[in-house]
Amino acid sequence: MKPFEYIRPATVAEAVAAAAQPGAAYLAAGTNLLDLMKGGVSRPDRLVDVTHLDGLDAIETLADGSLRIGALVSNADLAHDPAFAKSYPAVAEALLSGASAQLRNAATVGGNLLQRTRCAYFYDTASRCNKREAGSGCDASEGENRTHAVLGWSENCIATHPSDFCVPLVALDAMVEIEGRGGHREIALDELHRLPGDTPARESVLEPGDLIVAVRLPPAAHAFAAHARYLKVRERTSYAFAVVSAAAALRIENGKIAEARLALGGVAAKPWRARAAEDVLRGVAPAADVFQEAARRALTDAKPSGDNAFKIELARRIVVRALTLAAAGTPARMPALPASPFASTTGAIHA
Amino acid sequence: MPELNLTSAPAHIRHGSNIGQPLTRRDGVLKVTGQATYAADNHPPGMLYAVTAVAGISHGRVISLDVAAAKRHPGVVDVMTPEHKPQLAIDPEIKTNPFVFRMEALQSNEVRYANQPIAVVIAETLEAATEGAALLAPRYETLPPLVGLDAGESFVPPVVGVGNPTEIHRGDVEAGLASAEKRIDATYETPPQYHNAMEPHGIVASWDGDSLSVDMPTQGLKLSLARIAELFGIAHDKIHIRSPFLGGGFGSKGLMGGPPVLGIMAAKLVGRPVKLVLRREQMYGPVGHRAPTRQRLRLGVDGEGRLTALDHHARTVSSTFDDFYEPAADASHTLYAAPAIRTSHDAVRVHTGTPLFMRAPGEATGSIALESAIDEMAWACGMDPLAFRLKNYAEVEPISGKPFSSKALLACYEQGAARFGWAKRSLQPRQMRDDAGLLVGWGMGTATFPALMFQAEARAAIRRDGSGVMEIGAHDMGQGAWTALAQIAADAVGLDIARVEFKAGTSDLPDAGIAGGSAHTATAGAAIHSAGAAVIAKLADLATGDERSPLFGAGNAGVIARDGRLVRRDDESRGESYAEILARAGVAEVEARGTGAPNPAAMEEYAMHAHGAVFAEVKVDPELGQVRVSRMVGAFAAGRIVNPRMVQSQLFGGMIWGLSFALHEEAITDRRTGRIMNANLGEYHVPVNADVPPLDVITVEEHDPHVNALGIKGVGEIGITGSAGAVANAVWHATGVRVRKFPIRIEELLTPR
Ligand SMILES: Cc1cc2nc3c(=O)[nH]c(=O)nc-3n(C[C@H](O)[C@H](O)[C@H](O)COP(=O)(O)OP(=O)(O)OC[C@H]3O[C@@H](n4cnc5c(N)ncnc54)[C@H](O)[C@@H]3O)c2cc1C
Ligand code: SF4
């Protein structure tokens, strides 16, 4: 392993100062970063360990009714917080569908947002990758790419962002609080990740030294609690990234959808908010045909980036199913197989 | 288990006191408390760490390595390259016997597959060695690689598997097809797969002058020893290998590969003990894999649903520099009674590490294709798949016409089907749903695996205190040899298992043969059995020839060994303890050796196989195509069951591997570079707990007087066969979609709405 400097700052300000230098990286639980370092994919000179910073591990309800989640809260602690799971069930379901119990116990909120793509060519240092080494080329574009992006990709990069957590968060208009060299600022999560364009190596809008300190869900987000689901199709029942996923959240009043939220995962370099589909749903009664229309709208701009045309049809079907499940109502208890198409399996068989 | 009176069994051994008991693993507590030392747990004083640098291309030449940069890195002690290495006594390219495979021991700068070792960095710490390897920054001359089943020119290999004929036929297949009422012609593909044992291949090697001490996991202690001896030009008795535990092998630790040889070379180069452990991704190359196959099956049936012909052709791959051909089509030799059968193979060469034995080599790949084709034909005939199999049940081995030494397959079908509830299956596909609306499908497959025997030797002794010793260089890969073989040993010397010191797992013990081919318990067990019989016979001689003994005059066959005593067969109240016999004779111990080996006469006369029937239920999301297995029942007949608990675990493991074969496992290979893109356990999918349904294993009683003295057939591999096909057939039954390329992917099941 490449030798690196290890710094454990006492305060956020020290952390920002230490991480602003070229070659520095924040270390949270390291479940992604250390793998990348062992593989020679990331070779930082300096690790700034933020896990000992005070005050970043709280889940708190603010005066205006919004919820603030510290960047160091673990994925597991957040998902298993009863009040959180009750108010934001799709987010809890997404968290519990990710990785494994061991990884979720370690992984942090901030690290989950900024986890890197799982594109195999990005991980394989013998391959060319514009994200790993700007301008070197993209070996995925003519390679094994059946799980790559169908939305928002460019010739320079067809990778997806793999996070489950981010999908319902972006649907619920989550905000990201950042401390940087210029002080405190906040941006919408939808603005955090960049599409690849000509600069796939620049994955987010963060500047050197920028530290995510919290994620905030606005007051309106818990209004969807009664009708919110996350659905994730994957190639084994657990412990696999999404082939495609969707978060659907509905506010239903008098039998009509007052407001709909929809986002897709595993389809683009960022969690993909499908606003055009949301528009179709506003003010109508939940029904199969409107869900179909929403699904069509959500994928209007989709195009295969390789051997992955099936993901477009799969995404449409997932949207329909996620909306159907959301309309049926959030289950009283978290399913044993969160976000799985098999979540509601009971057992009895009939012809 | 009732007493067996086998003709070949010595009369004074009584089976059943230890054999047949579901003992838990005798090494279990060591393992769960972390006290079982695997090879890489050893740290002799002064040990250094070696890390291999591996090729980033699959074909070409290394033209430069920045050795200076690696050596400058703090902690790096030396860098072993083709130019700087200890000389081997023989060229590793020479195949000195059929079980020697070519390996890369830095003999040249040629690259013939990705992840091939190209240099070894030796350092004070693992971290320094790892960074040193990265700093080598190899530059290559890259040549276009051959990739995939259609690469280059195909050819017919001289043999497949271990010496099997490439093509075999019986009867006239073309005539059988021509006369058939119905025919199917279907092509199936299976992907490259990697063993992925939990424990990576590793070695700790220490030289002391020209003596060598080695800790490494091996499924073949004596084969490894002989290979090390010839490569390093040292006598067998100068080498000591310890391999008490393997964290799985599945065939990848059977034959000596390049990486452990590099570890021994590195230790020699630096004159200190060296540890070399492969990283997970480095296991995708130099230590074998299961080759991909493309299999074409042509079947014909008459108006009654009886097979008229079965033609099974398999295309596979080998490396560009050595020969191993997955004998996939041979799976069609034994199961279905077609009057005309032909099996044939061809191959192409690709830039990959040489494929090797991987759990059920040939049987697993062949079985999923054969069982799928049988299922397709049953459907074409409008017959229930079980009824179709029964109609084509083979009373004698179809390819040879030989009778079976034993075959309780009918009972497997019957008991498995009953437990599963198969009779309620709808004939038509896509008919069954659960109350969540998921499609439900039921499928089945027949399991089969040959009952093999290799050569082994054991040494038994009875000591003055009445206790026993059994020594055999057997291998516990997790399957339970420490327990099952000790059970056989205890019965063989007529003692309680606690009174027998059972020694295994080191190269100074008698040769147990290779732990492979599902033959270890049978082979090592037979040697133990015969060594035990021989030592008891010596003990009996001491007693029956001594007029002071109550056994005087009973004759060797007139005594029975039981619970540490010899008693008269005609009057069990008369007898004496082992300790008494030895004390009076004034000897410290009696010892004897015994061997286990195949019986050529029996093999000439009988076809010997284990059998089974596997039934699977899957659920498939009708719109989203995700599949989950919800139930599996497997009924297996494999001769005598030495330890029902271990056997059940082996069969569970096999069935899970079958599920994995059908739905998960695939090494994704970049078609341009031949590099494997998912060489890690995050992305190379094997089932996780949530994928594994309740499994139900039935072991069907089967007595086989011919396979070996103990009547044991193997259980290590058969569980995969049948299971993979059962899951695939269940997916068809659920969806009506026949997927012929494995693993079955979601996109294949996204049927139009
Ligand atoms: C085998 C495996 C399977 C997985 N499966 C899934 C899955 O199914 N779904 C899923 O969503 N995820 C999955 N993951 C990914 C997992 O969720 C992430 O690894 C984890 O969330 C990262 O969190 P961390 O705290 O370990 O981050 P780290 O690894 O410590 O950091 C990740 C990145 O974020 C940066 N960073 C961390 N914290 C901050 C901060 N506060 N401010 C600024 N930058 C920061 C780091 O510099 C680094 O670049 C899987 C991971 C593995 C290894
Ligand atoms: S898709 Fe993006 S991440 Fe993958 S190889 Fe291409 S540039 Fe790199």
From TrEMBL, chain A:
UniProt-listed SUPFAM superfamilies: CO dehydrogenase flavoprotein C-terminal domain-like, FAD-binding/transporter-associated domain-like
Annotated GO MF terms: FAD binding; oxidoreductase activity
Keywords: FAD, Flavoprotein
Residue ranges occupied by any FAD-binding PCMH-type domain in the UniProt entry: 1-222
Pfam families referenced in this protein's UniProt entry, alphabetically: CO_deh_flav_C, FAD_binding_5
UniProt keyword Membrane, yes or no: no
PROSITE patterns: FAD_PCMH
Superkingdom per UniProt: Bacteria
Protein name, per record: Xanthine dehydrogenase family protein subunit M
TrEMBL record, chain B:
UniProt GO MF annotations: iron ion binding; oxidoreductase activity
Xref: InterPro entries: Ald_Oxase/Xan_DH_a/b (IPR000674), Ald_Oxase/Xan_DH_a/b_sf (IPR036856), Ald_Oxase/xanthine_DH-like (IPR016208), AldOxase/xan_DH_MoCoBD1 (IPR008274), AldOxase/xan_DH_MoCoBD2 (IPR046867), AldOxase/xan_DH_Mopterin-bd_sf (IPR037165)
Start and end residues of each Aldehyde oxidase/xanthine dehydrogenase a/b hammerhead domain: 33-144
Highest taxon listed in the record's lineage: Bacteria
Residue runs in coiled coils: none
Protein name as it appears in the record: Xanthine dehydrogenase family protein molybdopterin-binding subunit
Natural source organism: Bradyrhizobium frederickii
